[in-house]
Please model this.
Amino acid sequence: MARSYLFIPANVPRMLQNADVFEADALIFDLEDAVSSHEKDEARALLARFLDEHRPEGVELYVRVNSDDDLEKDLRTIAPYDVNIVLPKARSAAIGNLTTLFKRLKRRFRVLALIETPKAFFELDVIAEDKMVDGLILGAVDLLNETGGTFSEDGDALLFPRNKLHYAARAADIRSIDTPWPRVKEGLEHDIKRTAALGFDGKCAIHPNQVPSINEAMSPSPDALYKALRIIKKYESEQTTRFSLDGEMVDKPVIEKARKLLDKAKRYGMEVGEDG
Amino acid sequence: MVEKDLERLLDALPLEDGMRISFHHHLRNGDDVLNPVLKAIMDRGYKHLHLKASALFPVHKQVVKALKSGCVTDITTNYVSGPVADHLSKEGLEGSLTMQTHGGRARSIIEGGSPIDIAFIAAPAVDESYNASGVEGKNPCGSLGYAIEDAQHAAVKVLVTDTLTTIEHVQIEGRHIDHVLKVDSIGDTSGIESGTLAISSDPIKLKIAREAMRLLKALDAIQEGVSFQSGAGGVSLAVTAMFNDYLKTHGLKASFYSGGITAGHVEALEEGLVGRLYDVQCFDKRAIASLKQNEAHIPISASDYANPSNASRVIGDLDIVLLGASEVDLDFNVNVTSDSYLNLIGGSGGHSDTAEDSRLTIVVAPLIKARTPLIQDRVQTITTPGAHVDCVVSERGIAVNPARRDLIRSLEKTSLPIMSIEEMQALAHHYTKRPAAVKKGDVIGIVESRSGGRLDTIHKKVV
Model:
């Protein structure tokens, strides 16, 4: 499961060429907001050529498609490639319409639903439970434009949508992915810590320089991994789900959490050392 | 007697056609000594001069006029950029261009292989005994490292200053000096900082910096007492910052940083992360201020920095150096003298010196620059021989010189993207395709090795 989702404008050759060197776990090629309406055709052609000749390996690939009349053109363009989609301004009805479209194209895409309208929050359960949907992404800028809230470092205006989206994703056992922080550097670390503390699985990035910080914050810390390793080792040697370690009681949920943490570290290629 | 008029000074100097005159580059792009002095000499009609400037920057436009007029016919320097470089690349010169290294220049001046008839030395502050300081005066430049050999070995030595005062930090002793010229201004200190200072925000360069740090960690190269040198480019500054962070978080202290000194080096000194700074050149105002105030920040001459004949040269004890490249070839030869299209863009400076002396030489560069691949079959100009280059770090992988089997063994079990130089080239060609051969024009000069041999020839661009 990806920690970082980096948006790459599909109409910028240099960004496309270097997309896979920025260490993001997932790339979202953007055909929507990053591309002006008169450049859409050119961007689709460029993206198709890039996927033909330089498809990045070892990274999850998504395309943020348009939600309007361009949607079908976008899907036809990317249908031959092993990519999935981010659906902007996702609503339950729009996701329902995808089924028809996919049938017509004879190509089923997995969907990350970009939740960026207030109304979508009142149908999140339905969106999250849809079989095509693999995850929910919070799109804060558009959302706050509608709610009148401020995207600030204190994060107050996003407390409800962040929690609501994360809980809906958890309940449906799909990914919860936090909104990108709008500034490249200033305030980023603070915002990422909040994302991690709320329990999100991943976070979007709008600039490559945001990716290392996101990956680090969304990864288990070396200390936490070392502790998890010791919990699992003691559990395996004592064959009991209730014991004490360093004066702290360990029971089944703690063991399960430690196991999940170690699995996560393995997925990210992190080394779990015996010496912490 | 201090002369206050350039013309009267020139009257007093034994100027002749064909003379060898020198300048240093510590004021970098803020220098206002070379241009007016050369113009005055040119206006007097002298011909066939050999210009021996330690480096030439974009500000030195007068050199182009002097080349066109026949006033200057030969140039020996360690670095050339801007209009002079453009002119040489396209038009060549009547005589020859010799590109030296910083250490090689000092060696050749001391040993007599590259004599100087008159040295014009920009000096930010001069006292009544003709002692000179680089850290005092109204336009300080910091270390005067590249002027020391000129001041000691030229036949005639002239200090050019805008500040006559008592000085505390003597870098050039008055006993060597024959004349002092007082001018209104020797230049602009802020010009020192052009093209340097800022840690890169380019994500590709930052990726390269992170990969270089991962390599250093994987090689376990950062130990207590380590010595380190990096330049003032964006990648180097980023690695220096990461290097400092690593020292701090691991409770380590480096023995010294050397070469061109920046604010990042100074911060490390002030935080106790490094014992000494050996400063042959200041790259920013923070470095200049530190050189003036901090006894552990030590000015050194070019000879004490990198002269291969000087057994006690500082870089003889250097553990790690980080260097740039415009091209690298399949034998690990590095070019920082020209680009792939034969445009002169710089020169060795200390590149070749430090690569040869340092125990670990890491070249950092983007794999693709403006659709041109970094790795070529053969570099256009060899600045630093591949035998002295250990690793090439790009954003897409790391190539280790096969001659360094010890490094290859150390990296066998790491997750670093280690690849052969041929694989790295193929990776670049995947995006750029194989570039067409570039036709070389006439030979206009040579790259001289630090010990004085001919390393390569420099060709004119075919326009």
